[in-house]
Each structure stands twice: as C-alpha cells, then as structure tokens.
Amino acid sequence: MTDNIGIYLFNNVEILDFCGPYEVFTCASRVHGGDIPLFNVFTLSESLSPVRTRAGLKVMPEFSLSDHPEMDCLIIPGGVVSDEMYKKKIIQWIYEQSKKVKITSSVCTGSFLLAQTGMLDGKSATTHWEDIPDLRSMFPQVLVKEGLRWVDEGNIVSSAGISAGIDMSLHLVERLHGRALAERTAKQLEFDWTENV
C-alpha cells in the first residue's frame, strides 16, 4: 500500500528543507522497487501560484490546500516562517491535517508553525540551533530540545535545521517500512545518516 507524503511549500521556504525529504522518500520507493510505489510524494501550497524559495528558486506546487490528496504524512519545512505563522487559514489547515495523518513532521523552523497550532504544547520538539532561543521564548509550553537531529513524539516528529530533515526522513522511512529500507536508502543517497544517540 502506498503512503502519501505531502510537503507544504510557502514563500521563503528553505530549499533543502523540502527537497531533502522529497529525495529521501522518492529514493526509498526506487530502492524498494515493485509495481506499486511505497511512497507517493507531492508538494502543496496555499494556492497553485509559484512559490519563491528563500534562495530565489521558483517552484510550482502540485496541489493547493483546497484540493489535494489525502495524506499519510505531512511535512512542514522551515525557512522564513514569520508570515506563515500569522495566517490563520494555514495554521488551522495544519491543525486539521494533523488529526487525519499518521505523522505530522517539521524541518528546521517549520516547528514554529506546528507550535502555533498548539499541537506541541507539553511535547518535546526541536528546530535549527540558531532558532532554539526564539522557540523557547515564544512557546514556553513546548519542551524544546537541542543537540538532537530529530525528536519523535509519535504522531509528531520535528527535526533540527536543514540537512537534519534528511536524517529525520530516513527515520520516518524506518518507522513506516523498516530499518533495512532506511539503511539501503541512505546508502543509495550516499548520505552519512546521523542518528540520535
């Protein structure tokens, strides 16, 4: 059975925050083989308008928030999230999706959007090392961890900055389809998978 992996895009998103997980899940499907892909990975955004990344790359989302497939896993990447945090429609959508998916995850400052929904209250989470103090001060009800590549709270998983999203995504592959596939995927990517200790 195929797991649908949706990756939310927004203006000023960090490229590797969404491209890293995208590559991990699509690579895991290739490595696994078979007629039916393990993962169907797609991007979605507030609308179908092009999104301009933090580095200036223009990206076309595949789906909008009002018209997208059901998801098994939602990934919220980071970047400059100050505008997204105060879009009530976006925060409500993330919260509503978190009730439907198996796993809601964030990369880097994407954790601020999860925290804004209230879903991290009383839970552990992490973000980019540079943003740890802000996450703590803005959301004192969140148990902010540092020095970890990712924090797994069951149905919510957050990662540290940028490349840590690849480590987290390999962890999610392991959770969804086993250790062996995650290791084979890391090898295929020629990626030195850094795990939490």
From TrEMBL:
For whether the record's keyword set contains Calcium, the answer is no
Name of this protein: DJ-1/PfpI family protein
Which terms are listed as keywords in the entry?
Answer: Lyase
- EC main class here is lyase
Q: Where is the DJ-1/PfpI domain?
A: 5-174
Query: What InterPro entries has UniProt attached to this entry?
Result: Class_I_gatase-like, DJ-1/PfpI, INH-QAR
Q: What is its EC number?
A: 4.2.1.-
Database matches in Pfam families? DJ-1_PfpI
Gene Ontology terms for molecular function = lyase activity
UniProt feature coiled coil, ranges: none
Key word Lyase present = yes
What broad taxonomic lineage does this protein's source fall under? Bacteria, Pseudomonadati, Pseudomonadota, Gammaproteobacteria, Enterobacterales
Going by the entry's taxonomy, the superkingdom of the source organism is recorded as Bacteria
